[in-house]
């Protein structure tokens, strides 16, 4: 039972930054924009949230700083792709590289600095319940915020007029513009929201998951989040399940190493990334499933007619 609790709680924690980043990218892609710079935006969020914590700001302020840093990085991407109509794939890759360099520069001074990790929420009586309390009620606030974000984003996309407008923009920006919707403004807002969510994912890494600064601490999680959106065929519920799947693989390889499983540690560490490749290969074989919820105008530039 102790092993089960450790794997379950570890899975939820490891999946949290993926949930933030992948849900944010899902909204961005639903608007018709492809941002490959999730890794860079997460690193922006991680380093500036850590800086705020080291500077003595309370945890909520540090989290907000990380989220705003991610949004600021995404604004740069938005200006390049939505205003100047540069190639979205190239701009996203440049943002990923830029975020890695900027975070390494600002994080260089934090090499030996440790901070106190975010504390779990302690609910009287409930948190102390046997098994159930450990499984459900002993996480830090960002874990619950990620789950709340999933509920709100699902509701927004499929139960509100704003969500319908966003999806219409991603399917046919020409039609959305023809009936009077500001396509570029909508896409800017989606890009900013995606950056904010990626910044939250990065802030979680440096404030809760690993409460110390490590260069390139995302370790490819931004790319996994990007793959998750495709794996989920652009559906929020599948994003959540996929994040838990990859989080579980991460925890299981750590548990396997801790229990002395006789498999090279390098292979175990690569397991989540190998699983990402395998899933994408399988999904790509079913073209009908892949295109079922695919935004028809994804990565296509749009210039409003005068």
Automatic annotation (TrEMBL):
For this protein, the record's CDD domains field holds: TM_PBP1_transp_TpRbsC_like
* Listed GO CC annotations: plasma membrane
- UniProt keyword Ribosomal protein present: no
Q: What is its main location?
A: membrane
- Please provide the record's keywords in A-Z order: Cell membrane, Membrane, Transmembrane, Transmembrane helix
Q: Quote the subcellular location field of this record.
A: Cell membrane
Single GO molecular-function term? transmembrane transporter activity
Annotated membrane topology: Multi-pass membrane protein
Q: Does the entry feature the keyword Transmembrane, yes or no?
A: yes
Record field: transmembrane: 6-26, 33-53, 59-82, 89-106, 141-158, 188-210, 222-246, 267-285
Protein name listed in UniProt: ABC transporter permease
């Amino acid at each position: 039972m102790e092993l089960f609790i450790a794997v379950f709680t570890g899975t939820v924690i490891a999946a949290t930054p993926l949930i933030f980043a992948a849900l944010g990218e899902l909204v961005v892609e639903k608007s018709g924009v492809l941002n490959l710079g999730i890794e860079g935006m997460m690193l922006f969020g991680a380093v500036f949230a850590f800086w705020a914590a080291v500077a003595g700001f309370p945890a909520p302020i540090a989290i907000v700083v990380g989220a705003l840093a991610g949004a600021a990085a995404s604004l740069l991407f938005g200006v390049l792709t939505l205003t100047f109509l540069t190639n979205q794939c190239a701009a996203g890759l440049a943002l990923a590289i830029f975020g890695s360099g900027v975070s390494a520069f600002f994080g260089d001074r934090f090499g030996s600095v440790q901070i106190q990790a975010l504390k779990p929420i302690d609910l009287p009586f409930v948190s102390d319940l046997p098994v159930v309390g450990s499984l459900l009620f002993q996480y830090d606030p960002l874990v619950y915020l990620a789950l709340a974000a999933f509920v709100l984003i699902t509701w927004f996309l499929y139960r509100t007029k704003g969500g319908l407008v966003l999806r219409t923009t991603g399917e046919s920006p020409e039609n959305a513009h023809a009936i009077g919707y500001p396509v570029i403004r909508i896409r800017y807002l989606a890009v900013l929201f995606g950056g904010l969510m990626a910044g939250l994912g990065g802030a979680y890494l440096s404030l809760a998951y690993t409460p110390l600064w490590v260069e390139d601490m995302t370790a490819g999680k931004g790319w996994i989040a990007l793959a998750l959106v495709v794996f989920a065929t652009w559906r929020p519920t599948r994003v959540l399940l996929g994040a838990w799947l990859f989080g579980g693989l991460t925890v299981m390889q750590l548990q396997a190493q801790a229990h002395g499983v006789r498999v090279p540690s390098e292979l175990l560490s690569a397991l989540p990334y190998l699983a990402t490749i395998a899933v994408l290969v399988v999904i790509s074989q079913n073209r009908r499933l892949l295109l079922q919820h695919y935004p028809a105008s994804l990565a296509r530039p749009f210039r409003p007619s005068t």
